[in-house]
Design brief:
With 778 residues, this protein is mostly helical. It is 72% helix and 0% strand. This is Exocyst component Exo84 C-terminal domain-containing protein.
Length: 778
Amino acid sequence: MKMVESSEEEDDFPSMESVTPQSKIDTIYQSKTEKGIRKICFELLDLKDAVENLCSNTLTKYSAFLRLSDEVVEMKHELNELRKHISSQGILVQDLMGGVCRELEEWSQISGDIQEVQDSLQACEINDMVSTEVEGRRMQFLDHIDVLLAEHKIEEAIEAIDAEERSYPELKSSGEASAVDASFKSALLKSKTLLENQLVEISQQPLVGILELKMVLSGLLKLGKGPLAHQIFLKSYGSRLQRSIEDFLALCPCYPETYSATLSNLVFSMISLTTKESGLMFGDNPVYNNKIVQWAEWEIESLVRLVKENAPPSETASALRAASVCVQASLNHCSTLESQGLKLSKLLLVLLQPYVEEVLELNFRRARRVVLDLVGSDESISLSPRFASPLSTFATSSDTMLVDCGMRFIFVVKEIVEQLTHLVILHFGGNILMRIAQLFNKYVDFLIKALAGPSEDDNLTELKEPVPYKAETDSQQLALLGTAFTIAEELLPMVISRIWNVLNESKEAGIAVADNILPAGHNSLDPKDWRRQLQHSLDKLRDHFCRQYVLSFIYSRDGETRLGGQIYLDGKGEDLIRNSDPLPSLPFQALFGKLQQLAAVAGDILLGREKIQKVLLARLTETVVMWLSDEQEFWGVLEHDSAPLRPVGLQQLILDMHFTVEIARYAGYPSRHLHKIASDIIARAIKAFSTRGIDPQSALPEDEWFVETAKGAINRLLMGASGSDISEIDDEHIIMEDEVISDSDDSPSSLSSVDTDESFASAQMEELDSPVYTDSES
């Protein structure tokens, strides 16, 4: 329906009663709007009245507050009036005392001493005046101090008291004083106590600033409370340090290797700052200096404890790095603090030594696991070609497991050395080198287990434990030996050269390491002694190889000896001298072939390491004659009363000894030790044959004959099957080779005809001295 918009339209449609006129609508809504406005106006008026009432009440209360303030002021005035009244009462007392003086004057006049009484009276009057004036001034002073304390004007109160005590030094004295002076001193002491308490309260606020702290300390010093001021001073700086440490500790896991240096910087920087501020504020007082030292020592103990608590696991390289960095940073700070009169290096090293040694011990235990646990270890290693190349040359001749073991050894030692800082090496270098030598000895023991043959040596520790690898062939065993020698003589010196450089530099510079506070061996070690330890381990490995090698040569699989005394009782013919081409006995011919074969293999495996080849072959030759010298069963046969000894047997034995010596000399590894043992064997054999009626002078030719015969035998054996006699020897020797040479895949079936220069190591050596082979090493 269309809306009607005017009155005229309403007339045109009178029949539509449901339509409401616009005028009526306007009237209705206009009346409602006016009512709303009026209601709001009434509410605003009510609110205005409430605000006016509130303002009126506020003014009334403020007026009451002003009246109360005026009353307080009046009370202060009344209090001052009361004090004045007390002062007047004091004057009255003085007057009474003056009356007493006058009575004394009258009494003195009666007694005839009038002049003295007059003088006394005059003095009393003067004293009364002075006392009254001093008393009044002191009362005003105490009132002034009380007002300053009430208004918390601490600095002004301290200055006033300090000025008063400077003006009247007797106030600080502890001697006896008059009743008035004692009362004033007591009141002054009470005021000073109140000041002291207020200063202490300020210092105990959690967020006290540097300026406020200096104000407190200065005030306490002026009040004569120096020890208390210094105690608050140390406590405040200790709290600041503790807050800095707490803020940093949350970040320690993010910096596992350098967190200890940051902690050290925080602690020693605060110690340095505290020392400087103490000197500026308290002066060079021995008592306060001792307190600083004690506080610094306590903070260093806390530092060491925090380093331990927040360190990575002690067996990790990160823990070793953290400990090294801590020692380096802390000792550098200690050197700086020495210029301020603080000598803390000894204490620091005493506190850090157990922790550093614990970390070193656990790292070297981890190193043993990494090196020896080849099966269970999954730790990856990465060596530079400088270290990996010398060892990788043995991988083609030996099982890669043993080469990997050598690489692990170099890797873990290099990793440990890289974590060390200069000062850690300076103070703990000897200890670290000893541990490296012990680790190498463990590594050698592991290699010995891999070398152990059917006749294992029960004296070797842990030898009965299973090993993941056995070196069985000549090439494998030589590669094993070459790996150990390469590590000890080439790679390990390169790895630890940094340690030796630091120790040598300090020794040349004459640096005293912490006044020798650490036990001997921590920071000093003779390089010769250390190399001697490595050499002892190498000798142990080499001697074990030689012993196993010689035993496999001398004894058959059935346990029967091939080199027994019986071979010198069954000699064919009457005399070797009459033989046109005498040769050594078959076992020594086999020994010659064995050494020749081993030298050929060593020339390939140990290429470029002629010294190792010579040492090894010389020791093998010595081991044979040493076994012969000590074998009681061998000598039991020869020295038995029923043994059918013949001159040819003695000649054969002496020829065998000369043959052995000439082998070593001809191959380029002569040894005085070998020559001595061979001479002892010959002397014993001559004695044994002499006791049976054989005359050595008539039975034996000159020594030159044996030497020339031995050399000729070597030449003929090297020539191979060039004659019928040699062929017969080869036929017999072939039978022995089937039994003796069984541990190499490349074993020849007959004596080699390779030229001497190709079959033995070609390095030039005049003479090689070999250590005595003892039972403890075997």
